[in-house]
Design a protein that fits this description.
Elements (H helix, E strand, L loop, with lengths): L5 E6 L2 H10 L3 E4 L12 H10 L4 E4 L11 H14 L3 E4 L10 H11 L3 E4 L9 H8 L5 E6 L6 H11 L7 E4 L8 H7 L3 E4 L14 H13 L7
Helix pairs in contact: 1-2, 1-8, 3-4
């Protein structure tokens, strides 16, 4: 039986969310301020999107551009507010000044998230030592996904890393995003990658325009039609 690949789409508001679900998205990543590479949305935005669609929502916990936790107390407040609003899946990930995983910030935040599932976002692609980061996070409460391009520059450069990591047993799921294009899909699916993340690709007219249902549908078909890894 075929394994349907997960298609996650960035949504900024309810209009985006409705179009993405209609186009075949399986899950949404909710952010605001895409110019800062995606920050936490407000409680009101989360509530409006939750009321508009019935697919899973992963909510960004991030208040400043870059990968530093900065004001951890503010992050904890935001995480608590979103939990109180009903959010139960999240996206986060912080590095210290040396490019190592900020375990203190993550431990405090995941305590507030209280067992919720979460994605460690593309901070992994900017870490000083990718493999050391993965070892430090092994078995971390709630962590079930890495959003990664395999390299800071994007999937074109990171493809060999992604193909190698796809073969690792017992790891959190790889969610591939960051410079991802349709031409990457066949090799990634053949390697066993089962989750894909798009943002700008869902908006052919640019970030100033909403998600286009047809663009999401194109990705849905490409994922469904790509040959899977042998034995999948």
């Amino acid at each position: 039986m075929s394994n349907r690949a997960v298609l996650e789409v960035i949504a900024l508001d309810a209009e985006d969310a409705i179009a993405a679900q209609a186009g075949g998205a399986d899950r949404l990543e909710l952010v605001t301020d895409i110019a800062a590479d995606g920050l936490s949305p407000s409680r009101e935005t989360y509530a409006s999107i939750r009321a508009a669609v019935d697919i899973p929502l992963r909510v960004m916990i991030r208040l400043t551009d870059g990968f530093a936790a900065d004001d951890t107390e503010a992050l904890l407040r935001v995480a608590g507010e979103l939990r109180a609003e009903g959010a139960d899946e999240f996206v986060l990930g912080f590095l210290d000044a040396e490019g190592r995983v900020d375990l203190t910030a993550l431990e405090r935040l995941t305590a507030v998230l209280d067992g919720c599932r979460w994605t460690f976002h593309r901070a992994i692609d900017h870490a000083a030592d990718r493999q050391a980061l993965r070892k430090e996070l092994a078995g971390f409460p709630g962590l079930d996904t890495y959003l990664t391009a395999g390299a800071a520059a994007g999937v074109d450069e990171g493809l060999p890393v992604l193909l190698a990591e796809a073969a690792l047993p017992g790891e959190p799921q790889l969610l591939v995003g960051g410079g991802l294009s349709l031409e990457h899909v066949p090799a990634l699916r053949a390697a066993g990658i089962e989750a894909f993340h798009i943002g700008g690709a869902a908006r052919p007219a640019g970030w100033a325009s909403p998600v286009a249902r047809g663009a999401v549908g194109t990705w849905r078909r490409a994922l469904d039609e790509a040959p899977e890894a042998a034995g999948a």
